[in-house]
Design goal:
The protein is elongated, with a radius of gyration of 16 Å. Strands 1-2-3-4 form a 4-stranded mixed beta sheet, covered by helices on one side. The chain is built from 3 helices and 4 strands. It has about 160 residues and is α+β, with helices and mostly antiparallel strands. Helices cover about 30% and strands about 25% of the residues. It has a single domain, classed as K homology (KH) domain (GMP Synthetase, Chain A, domain 3), CATH 3.30.300.20.
Length: about 160
């Protein structure tokens, strides 16, 4: 059972692109890491532009976003859908309080330009069944997944 946060104390934000090799755009409060996919030859792990003291919420959002982006790719491949090169995932993880208890909650925005909204939504929801981070938090924290409107084609 999840509990609604009454007061947000801190928000960790990440932006992950489909390729993940180009890094994330710079922002005032975003953790900017170049991520790699395990098991791919020539895909060295690199941490670039690391902030001096990233918050745990930023690190969790970054790890989840990398994993979830990979899960989107796996689900799309199984559904024979080609993801656009400019696909992206934004995850925000809030640390907050309700009374004297601390909780986290998350928002996930998925952008798949050129993919029909219903197809993108089906891929995004199915990716939660693949991603270990999504499975770990399922039923434990509030998670809102949104497909951000883009110039998608009709279904």
């Amino acid at each position: 059972m999840t509990t609604k946060i009454q007061t947000v104390l801190l928000t960790g934000k990440t932006h992950t692109t489909g390729s993940r090799r180009e890094g994330a755009p710079h922002g005032d409060d975003r953790l900017d890491l170049q991520l790699s996919t395990p098991g791919n030859a020539g895909n060295d792990i690199a941490f670039t532009a690391i902030q001096a003291h990233p918050a745990a919420e930023q690190l969790f959002a970054g790890a989840w976003s990398a994993c979830y982006t990979g899960a989107l790719g796996l689900v799309a491949k199984a559904k024979k859908v080609t993801l656009p090169s400019d696909m992206s995932v934004d995850i925000e993880v809030d640390l907050g309080k309700t009374g004297s208890a601390y909780f986290i909650q998350a928002r996930i925005d998925v952008r798949m330009p050129g993919v029909a909204h219903d197809v993108a939504e089906a891929i995004a929801q199915a990716a939660h069944d693949v991603c270990p981070y999504s499975k770990a938090v399922h039923g434990n924290i509030d998670v809102a997944t949104n497909i951000v409107a883009t110039d998608a084609v009709a279904a």
